[in-house]
Amino acid sequence: MMRAALLAALALLLGGCSADWGWYVVDPSTQTGWTNLKFLLGGLYYTILLSLTAIAISVVVGLLVALPGLSQYRALRAFNRVYVEVVRSVPILVLILWVYYGLPQVMDITIGVFWAGVIALALSDSAFQAEIFRAGIQSVDRGQYEAAQSVSLGYVDTMRYVILPQAIRRILPALGNQLVYMLKMSSLVSVIGMQELTRRANELVVTEYRPLEIYTVLVLEYLVLILIVSALVRRLERRLRADER
Amino acid sequence: MADAIISARDVIKSFGDFRALDAVSLDVARGERVVVCGPSGSGKSTLIRCINRLERHEAGTIAVNGVPVDDSRRSREARRGTVGMVFQQFNLFPHLTVLDNLTLGPMRALRKPEDEAREIAMRYLARVRIPEQADKYPRQLSGGQQQRVAIARSLCMEPEIMLFDEPTSALDPEMIGEVLAVMTELARTGMTMIVVTHEMGFARGVADTMVFMDRGRIVETAPPARFFAAPETERCRDFLQKILHH
């Protein structure tokens, strides 16, 4: 339903095209248009690679930050709170700039654009992942821990085989959301020169000077990408639910 | 008691201002079946939860097989697989099949190979009379079947002691019988059992010792014949009156 509405709005927008529109810049039937289009679409690879790498890292870091948050020890819980509050307070764009321009000086290393982007996105997202995991783990009934303990499972086995499988099923919709969010936020990495979708569109606008058409293509690229990802996440959710029947 | 498998001495446990256990002492001999009853809030559940360390007692000592129950490695190692527990709410693992519920402990905690764990699991599923449900998920079973799976899950650890925390309280009346039957059968095998329950018919038939608790204390301990015929204390008499004639 949602999708149909979006597509209808888009059709109206495009239907309203007048002669003022210069679609030739991305017309695949012409030599230049085809080259331009390929250049724009080429950014998909980096957008996806960047987002997936970042989210893979942020899920792991998020879990590692969430677990101390559930500890009985105050110091470990404090670590969790400080991490989440600090990281969550920094705007992603600021984090990207700081990691790319600042971190190499602090640590006396060189970081490429890709890894600077990955680190900044993953760091930023990990605070949210930590909160999601904490809520998911807390939603698992106390009796599950007691049952695990009553068959002598240790902490790691209890988490791995009993608590996390149940928690992850519950937080899967939230994880899907984060992935969508990540795909969109990856556009910010364009500011440090990462050749992903947004950067490529920006560069093409500078040479072709047709921002309306090029940015419209950019909107469509994100739209299609995210609709596909959303559908995949929903399918995964259904499959996990089916497992329980 | 020299042959006590469980020995509790002056155990104290509080929740905030509420004293759940107020200097409780109890000895359980190997193979003995103890039924604990008493009004709600009297400390019955807390007592057995302290025995398998689901709760930490703050004073007094509890020893299982002579080893004090505490957080030390030695104590945890000694308890591993020794004390089984059946919960009021079953607490099966909902994301695992019945078979996986049964093999998880033996494989992860006792390091048994998978085929051996499965073999043990099927043996105990047969004993609780639901071997055909092995591949189902807990939610596909009735309450009575779930509780029998939970009993089998504990037995798969091949424990020396089984604790039951109001195992039939969450069940529909028509399913209570099948669970009690499994427990009665287990009692016949010589398992050491502590059962918190209000099922006095079961208690009469199975218990070696009846324990009556009230306000965090053990008020009366007696063999069932004497316990039911001539309770010594007023509170115990009152309690039995209420639950036997409701």
Describe this structure in words.
- The complex is a heterodimer of chains A (245) and B (246).
- Chain A has 245 residues and is mainly α.
- Chain A has a domain at 48-194: MetI-like (MetI-like fold, Orthogonal Bundle).
- Chain A is 80% helix and 0% strand.
- Chain A is built from nine helices and no strands.
- Chain A has helices at residues 2-15, 31-69, 74-89, 92-107, 113-138, 142-150, 155-185, 197-208, 211-243.
- In chain A, helix 2 packs across helix 5 (113-138).
- The longest helix of chain A is centred in the first third of the chain and has 39 residues, at 31-69.
- Chain A is globular and about 70 Å long.
- Chain B has 246 residues and is α/β, with parallel strands linked by helices.
- Chain B folds into two domains: 1-76 and 161-246, 3-Layer(aba) Sandwich (Rossmann fold), CATH 3.40.50.300; 92-158, no CATH class.
- Chain B is built from nine helices and ten strands.
- Chain B has a six-stranded mixed beta sheet, with helices on both faces. In chain B, strands 2-1-4-5 form a four-stranded antiparallel beta sheet, covered by helices on one side.
- In chain B, strand 7, helix 6 and strand 8 (192-196) form a beta-alpha-beta unit.
- In chain B, helix 3 (98-108) packs parallel to helix 5.
- The radius of gyration of chain B is 18 Å and the shape is globular.
- The N and C termini of chain B lie far apart (37 Å).
- The model of chain B has no long low-confidence stretch (mean pLDDT 94).
- At the A-B interface, helix 6 and helix 7 of A face strand 6, helix 3 and helix 5 of B.
